[in-house]
Design a protein that fits this description.
The chain is α/β, with parallel strands linked by helices and 317 residues long. Helix content is 36%, strand content 14%. The longest helix has 20 residues. It binds phosphoric acid mono(formamide)ester. Phosphoric acid mono(formamide)ester (CP) binds next to helix 2. The site of phosphoric acid mono(formamide)ester (CP) has 10 residues, from helix 2.
């Protein structure tokens, strides 16, 4: 059974992946995020999710995603539950579906799921009751759609003409759900020029299908970039030797202030976090004037408010 994530008129039912989304749906999320961000800044956030129950179900660690979903839900007046999986019955061997159905029996409108296995969010979406939404907050190497939406939202704020942009994504593309979702998102937004820079061992098979130009030399890849997006080395997902060592990686693929000069003078630097300073990015760049890394984090709350409002506005509690 497949899972349909978009209803008629582009409204979201679930959000599991960026694949299959259309540009107007993304534009609608961005416009709602703009409105909700302004409303929050003026102290007038509407209680759009009052009476709704949202459950954060995180089977992997998270700082940014979990907390920004929680803040987003609270700002829209939802009830949000953070399930502590270490002290829940999953630690006594309860299956994923039994945990899910148990929580669903308490009445829940939306599950926000992070899981180490690719496909876990789709699996859960196939097994929840009709009317319960599932948001993928990162599954294995597969997808992290709200990260892609907040990244695109941040780019749009600084450089709204996607068609005229050169975006360079650097690092561990092979293991990165962030990269996969961002690449899909940039293609949906018809980005002008997309470059992927990585050692051959950190690129997926059939990388040519991703609609990007591939570079193994960071200096060449950075030339005249408008957006430089650095990825974290996903040591926890590496099986076997993908890299000589971290020092060697930094020498060839680390973003230093000297290297950043190869990009356009007004290029922005992005990173999804958590960062490995001195491995993929120099601290002076991460904290420097071209960095929008903390802006990405702040935008995550607005974009997640917009996504939850989009989904739950089409359902009844
Ligand atoms: N970017 C991101 O997913 O960060 P967390 O793992 O802290 O949620």
């Amino acid at each position: 059974m497949s899972v349909k994530q978009v209803c008629k008129q582009g409204q979201l039912k679930h959000l599991l992946t960026m694949e299959g989304l259309k540009r107007p749906t993304l534009e609608q999320v961005f416009a709602t995020a703009d409105e909700l961000s302004s409303a929050f800044s003026s102290g007038q956030c509407p209680p759009l999710l009052s009476g709704r129950t949202i459950i954060n179900l995180f089977f992997e660690p998270s700082t940014r995603t979990r907390n920004s979903f929680e803040l987003a839900a609270k700002r829209l007046s939802a009830d949000i539950l953070n399930v502590d999986l270490a002290s829940s019955s999953t630690s006594k061997g309860e299956s994923l579906l039994d945990t899910l159905w148990t929580l669903q029996a308490m009445h829940c409108d939306m599950f926000i799921v992070r899981h180490p296995e690719s496909g876990a969010a789709h699996f859960i979406a196939r097994h929840v009751d009709q009317g319960v939404a599932v948001l993928n907050a990162g599954d294995g190497r597969h997808a992290h759609p709200t990260q892609a939406l907040l990244d695109l939202y941040t780019i749009r704020h600084h450089k709204p003409d996607f068609g005229g942009l050169r975006v360079v994504v650097v690092g561990d593309i092979l293991h990165s759900r962030v990269a996969r979702s961002l690449i899909h998102g940039l293609n949906i937004m018809n980005v002008g020029d997309l470059r992927l820079v990585a050692p051959p061992t950190l690129l997926p098979e059939q990388v040519e299908d991703l609609g990007a130009e591939v570079y193994h030399d960071l200096d060449k890849g950075l030339a005249d970039a408008d957006v430089v997006y650095m990825l974290r080395l996903q040591k926890e997902r590496m099986v076997g030797a993908h890299l000589p060592d971290r020092h060697e990686y930094y020498k060839h693929f680390g973003l230093t202030s000297a290297r950043l000069k190869l990009a356009k003078a007004d290029a922005i630097v992005m990173h999804p976090g958590p960062m490995n300073r001195g491995v993929e990015i120099e601290s002076s760049v991460a904290d420097g004037p071209q960095s929008v890394i903390l802006e990405q984090v702040g935008n995550g709350v607005s974009v997640r408010m917009a996504v939850m409002a989009n989904i739950l506005s089409g359902t009844t509690s």
